[in-house]
Amino acid sequence: MENQKSMEVFSSMPVPKAVFKNAVPAMAAMLMVLIYNLADTFFIGQTHDALQVAAVSLATPVFLIFMSIGSILGIGGTSVISRAIGEGRFEYARKVCAFCMWSCVDIGIVLSTLMLIFMDQILALVGASADTWELAKSYLTIVTCCGPFVLISNCYSNVIRAEGESGKAMMGQLLGNLLNVILDPIMILGFGWNIVGAAIATVIGNVVGAGYYILYFLRGKSSLSVNIKDFTLKGKVCSSVLAIGVPAALGSLLMSVSQIIINSQMAEYGDMTIAAMGVAMKVVTITGMVSMGLGQGVQPLLGYCVGAKLWGRFKKVLRFSLTFALCLSLVLTAVCYLFTNQIVSAFLTDAMAFDYAVQFARILLTTSFLFGVFYVIINALQAMGAATESLIINLSRQGIIFIPALFLLKEMMGLTGLVWAQPVADLISIVFAVILYIRISQKMMNTNTVLN
């Protein structure tokens, strides 16, 4: 009965209500991820040690690789499962869910081991200086130990939405991230553990978040499964998940890589520029994370419509979501721009780092008002199973366009050129996204029966 009620959200609930029902919990979950991402830097900033802020900025993109890989399985699994449910293939959906779980465990263990073995090489690659080396190493060594739990938490905060349980999907992230935020001031400031305390709080938060999702399935209230008996590579389970998940999460993975490249280039200008860039990216992330949550929230609705060939409803959901996304991004960007100084001052007290951070943040905010549109279109493509198109867009935003722009603009403009590379890549990628969506949607809708 509960699952049947959840399916009504996809098939018959009024579009605005269905979008809000799915998107609000997803946005709330991403808001908690945002708070979680801000917490370490914020409370480390209260030590008034800009070197520790720089160390966290150096370590964060490396740690985000775990989250990105979890998103590969989570976003890919959500797309495949939501379409399978729309087609009535419930057993296949269970197998996909189990595949995602045990892949998180295996990949998490392997990745954690490799990072611990090659820790010194990683620190040299990200541009750690003599002053930040031991600080960044302490943080990374601790957080790396919870690799499998990070993957599970990020995977299932997506997957559970595929069966219409957006509230439960949000709850796991809420519990883990809230616990991390509570523990940060206690361990960083109260116990005086500084950056080590931030790392320990992160580990505990991720373990609790993953534990919530595992218990959700073990209680038997889900129509999906994480039982190892349901794990299989047959029936194109693995390839179907990765075909969508890799292009979808490649943007996040490349974002980590690009941040590592930026930090290594910024290192030429001193540790304060690294600390400033880390904080500036936190400012623009406020709009980015909420917009990402909106896109992820509407993806299961769109995926169900694709599977059930409800193209009329698909168009209505997409049109409403795009309008809402643009309005939301405009408001968030305006707030961040107006209060840039106040936001930056919460993280940095060093005068040089503060000035750099304000300048960098305002450059990055020039295109953030388009984030909502970008993420809704990306998720629409993923919902349609458009793996190639998603791959092209994500490669463009964080790789093909961004990395050459990074080095070209650095040569032309110096330090600020490194910052302007992201807005340039954002703008070109959004144009690509719109063009590719129009192309693939026309092709799919012309070869399928259009229903209301």
Automatic annotation (TrEMBL):
Give an example GO biological process.
response to antibiotic
Cellular location of this protein?
A: Cell membrane
Q: Which residues cross the membrane?
A: 20-39, 51-75, 96-119, 139-157, 169-189, 195-218, 239-262, 274-296, 317-340, 360-378, 390-409, 415-438
Q: Which GO terms describe its cellular component?
A: plasma membrane
Tell me, what is one Gene Ontology molecular-function annotation carried by this entry? xenobiotic transmembrane transporter activity
Q: Which UniProt keywords apply?
A: Antibiotic resistance, Cell membrane, Membrane, Transmembrane, Transmembrane helix, Transport
Q: What's the protein's topology in the membrane?
A: Multi-pass membrane protein
InterPro entries, alphabetically?
MATE_fam, MATE_MepA-like, MATE_MepA_subfamily, MdtK-like
| PANTHER family, sorted | MULTIDRUG EXPORT PROTEIN MEPA, SPORULATION PROTEIN YKVU
Similarity annotation: Belongs to the multi antimicrobial extrusion (MATE) (TC 2.A.66.1) family. MepA subfamily.
Q: What is the name of the protein in this document?
A: Multidrug export protein MepA
The scientific name of the source species is Butyricicoccus porcorum
